[in-house]
Amino acid sequence: MRGVYCLIVSVLCDINLRVGALGVRKFPAGKYIYVGSALNGLEARIGRHLRTDSQGVRSRPHWHIDYLLLSKDTRIEEVWVKECEEKEECWVAEEVSRHGDPIKGFGCSDCNCVSHLFRVEDIDFLRKLGLRPWRKIYDSGLTP
Question: pTM value?
Answer without folding.
Answer: 0.89
